[in-house]
Design brief:
Number of domains: 2
Radius of gyration: 21 Å
Number of helices: 5
Length: 401
């Protein structure tokens, strides 16, 4: 992918410092939501059909910027209502079909779709054990082995699971995908009610069913009667950044899907006015070092959107820079200008960040909230003072529409 000399020069000492060597560790699962299962579904597949269910990682929105350890794990949680008959399944990781848009054109239209003709990784068919005539579920964690996928990805990825058909007449032994119930759609993109356009744009899940002899992809908002639902499928990598929202002062922030649509100015006109605070969390597979500085870096642009760049920048063992370093907000957060977004002495593998005096009081940030044309991109940066190593977390996004 092309990168301009001007972009590289603008990084200056930042790239020189970040590109110092770091070591890969174990992996962290990066779910779209931190909540548990709400129910299970076949996403429109009839009990007598075999079909694939996919969860999309839109790398220009969340999940990009994977570190040097690459992708070494995929996971999915499947369920059956009657486990008296054994089932066969298969997990896979797909790239997107080239030429499909990274975002859907209109509500209900398709964003990128998985290229099922060329899996990046695919298990063999394997059996799930039989049990009694009761409900059972499995969380399937699959290692990609000694050949992880490279960390700097340029296109969306899809975690897929094969849901095989029912053998029993009543259809209760058909495989289901566990679902997290997110939110019902609403007119405003708030934490409680993200707009349908946002659901399709950022989390468009596709379903492939062998209906008329050819696979049929379906957007997430058409696959379910009520949109705002995520399959419990995950990708695993070394260093993850999560965006979040604190709905009530003193209460733990919500991360993942639940925190991507904060209502900082009560745009949704809630019965109890909402002034959500923004929050972030970085999660590393290890503590990363004995003496660590952690920072949240922010920008309103990514390198993917900058003319002449068009792609994230690999920093070798440090990770993959997605944020535009020429954005003034990036430079401000890199220099620690937002109190609360830098922690000296990170003592845990998962570190949360909240602006010390609230996001509304931070110079340059209140005007961005609910501008309805702004996205706030984030990556966590960790620096080990003892070894001089850096690690850059994945990309995640707050959306204001």
């Amino acid at each position: 992918m092309p990168s301009s000399c001007s972009i590289h020069r603008s990084l200056g000492a930042v790239v020189g410092a970040l590109a110092l060597a770091s070591t890969a560790g174990a992996q962290v699962l990066a779910p779209h939501t931190t909540a548990g299962a709400a129910f299970a579904s076949r996403s429109g597949l009839a009990p007598q059909q075999d079909g694939w269910i996919f969860e999309r990682y839109a790398f220009d929105r969340q999940g990009g910027g994977i570190g040097s350890g690459g992708i070494t794990q995929i996971a999915a949680t499947l369920q059956k209502q009657d486990c008296s008959v054994a089932s066969v399944t298969q997990l896979a990781l797909y790239d997107q079909v080239r030429g499909t848009p990274s975002s859907p054109i209109a509500p209900g239209s398709l964003a990128s779709v998985p290229d099922t003709s060329l899996p990046l990784y695919q298990t063999a068919l394997f059996n799930l054990p039989a049990g009694g005539p009761t409900v059972c579920a499995w969380t399937l964690n699959v290692s990609l082995g000694s050949q992880p996928l490279p960390g700097c990805r340029f296109f969306d990825l899809f975690v897929g699971a094969l849901l095989t058909r029912s053998v029993l007449v009543n259809g209760n032994d058909a495989l289901l995908a566990q679902i997290n119930l997110g939110f019902t759609e609403g007119a405003n993109a708030t934490t409680a009610q993200p707009a349908r356009t946002e659901i399709d744009r950022e989390y468009a899940t596709t379903m492939l069913a062998a209906t008329t002899g050819a696979p049929v992809p379906i957007p997430s908002t058409l696959a379910y009667p009520t949109p705002g639902r995520m399959h419990r499928f995950w990708i695993g990598y070394e260093h993850v950044t999560h965006t979040g929202a604190q709905l009530t002062a003193g209460q733990p922030p919500l991360f993942g899907w639940a925190g991507d649509y904060p209502d900082a100015n009560d745009v949704g006109n809630a019965p109890v006015p909402r002034f959500d605070e923004l929050a972030w969390r970085g999660e590393h597979s290890t503590l990363f070092g004995p003496n660590v500085i952690g920072s949240i870096l922010l920008a309103t642009r990514t390198l993917r959107s900058v003319p002449g760049a068009g792609a994230p920048l690999s920093l070798g063992a440090t990770g993959c820079l997605e944020l535009d370093p020429s954005d003034p907000l990036f430079l401000a957060t890199l220099n620690g200008a937002v109190p609360g977004l830098r922690v000296n002495g990170v003592s845990t593998s998962a570190q949360s960040y909240l602006p010390t005096n609230g996001i509304q009081s931070q110079a340059g940030l209140p005007g961005l909230l609910h501008a309805r044309s702004v996205d706030l991109y984030a990556q966590e940066l960790r620096f080990d003072l003892a070894s001089g190593r850096f690690s850059l977390g994945s990309l995640d996004t707050h959306s204001f529409r």
